[in-house]
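During the first year of the project, the team set up a workflow for recording each protein of interest as an amino acid sequence followed immediately by a discrete structure-token representation. This format lets reviewers and collaborators read both layers of information side by side without switching files. As required by the reporting guidelines, we include two representative entries from the current panel. The first entry is reproduced here exactly as it appears in our internal archive.
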Amino acid sequence: MTRSPFVPTIGIVGALILGQAAVAAGIISPLLIIVVAVTALGSFTIPDYNLGFSVRIQRFGYIVAAAVFGFYGVCLGLMVLLIHLVSLNSLGVPMLAPIAPRGRSSPDIVWRSPAFEMVRRPEAYGPKDTIRLGSPRKLGADDAQDHS
């Protein structure tokens, strides 16, 4: 017997009704309902089971933090997640490489400059020569030290 596509929808509607009743009774805050709804909707976008499981565990942590500390708990949880991501390395390269260890080679994080203006190689990868070959821009005094 196959599952109907309406089963998850009915579950979501039931959860929203129970959440509204809990807010009306003063048991939980409306912010908690918003956090639970956003994380539940986000969990439908994860195709891999193992990744979905780890996100579900994190979601329960955020729910507990929101229930205990409110908005400050959610912000604290996001800060802990950001600190954890900054401390991770993958094959010797920081996980948030162009953002977290900010260097001279990454000035174009938000707005990407044209390719001919990118003179330096990314420092996060540990290149032997930090200056790209064939760069049309003249090198300054500090650039000449890196190139030699």
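The second entry, processed by the same pipeline in the following quarter, appears below.
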Amino acid sequence: MVFDFLRRGTASADAATVPEQKASATGPVVAYQTSGRVAWSPRDTVSLTRTGFSGNPVGFRCVKLIAEAAAALPLVMQDQQQRFDVHPLLALVTRPNPSQGRAELLEALFAQILLSGNGYIEAVTGESGAPLELHVLRSDRMSVVPGADGWPIGL
């Protein structure tokens, strides 16, 4: 029967022939390679992203699903008195740059926030000073420049 192994006192004949110690041909090779010591990966954002996100299909899929779901939420612009259906900022976010749409920009931003804890968007301005394009910047390549009072004064 299939469930015979659940009955008490009826050990099968195969259980007696199982070796008590596992043998591995690669075990000694691994021990010789690392000399028995642990080899830690670097603790920078690029290495952690490469191993935990790019090299891990489960981690990749989790970040991608969360970023896609967050980017799919509708954006609402309003102040204390009214909600704006048409606004220059809404048009800019709809088409932030020539190579990305709203969903791609927000997915990249949310993925950066999930992977590194920070997200940065660069606004490319025109002659009038109004933003013309938005680009997501890699957070591992950014550093905050603190001012004398501790608040950031630059990136």
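For the second entry, the following points were noted during internal review. Residues 113 and 119 are 5 Å apart (CA to CA). The chain has one domain: 45-154. Both points are flagged for discussion at the upcoming steering committee meeting.
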